[in-house]
Amino acid sequence: MSDLDIRPQVTSCGGRAGVAATPVRELLPGREVPLGNDTVVRRLLPTLGRRMVGAWCFLDHYGPDNIAEQPGMQVPPHPHMGLQTVSWLLDGEVLHRDSLGSAQTLRPGRLGLMTAGRAIAHSEESPAEHAPILHGAQLWVALPDAARGVAPRWEYHDALPVLEDGGLRATVIMGEMAGAASPGTAYTPLVGADLALSGDARLPLEPDFEYAVLTASGVAFVDGVEVPPGSLIYLGCGRSELALRAAVPSRLLLLGGEPFEERIVMWWNFIGRSGEEIAAAREDWMTGDRFGAVHGYRGARIPAPALPPSPLKPRGRER
């Protein structure tokens, strides 16, 4: 998924300076951002006060939207560099195409994982014949320096490990939790899990990881704090378990990972280590063939926004 903001902010983050080494409870509301046509997303990472959770550096939550009489999601071809995209649906379908020639319809409970590496381009759209409701999340994972040059790759996994305990059903999307490991390729220690919750539950955690939880639907309490739908609660490090409670059947998304040591610069759909690297990627998208072409999408690709007048440089993990 693309950041379609015509004036994208420079986000510089990484390192341990802003990582809460002890448990905290920071409630972060989403910021509404238009995403082409009639789709509006809630941007939860990066946001005011929090830029990363482990290697997770971008989180858009969208829906549930009734698109029965609408075209639904329409995100034209756009580039990515230095990251992985993680596509996760709760309802509906999204057709993914990329410059490797991949064409895959994503559905609920199945992982779409795109590793950009040096360069890739893709598009996302609701199929012509689609379900009436669209609901899901799009996430980015920052690649560590040692993996930034890997060949671009598309993965689709329709069988993911599931943990069940009383009123909790946890699907491990990325990484590992309680011994259950996702087949998705990960380059840093992390976890992403879809939690279907009814009642009370206690979730095992890694004390060295930092964590956050998104409420996608329902009425959920995370460590005693009510987290409204479309909001994220940052939990810091130092927890070996997490208390969860749902007043009604609810869906949550758990994100966690070892704090990301490296400092990165994120602008538009690129992650690099310097402003010069970002500027070169923008130029390549506009004038070169580095990112390849996406075939099959009916429409023009997205042009890159203008670079900001100020230098692209790190400014710390938190805003």
UniProtKB/TrEMBL annotation:
It comes from the Bacteria. Residues 43-141 form the Pirin N-terminal domain. Gene3D superfamilies: Jelly Rolls (2.60.120.10). Residues 195-290 form the Pirin C-terminal domain. Belongs to the pirin family. This is Pirin. It comes from Microbispora corallina.
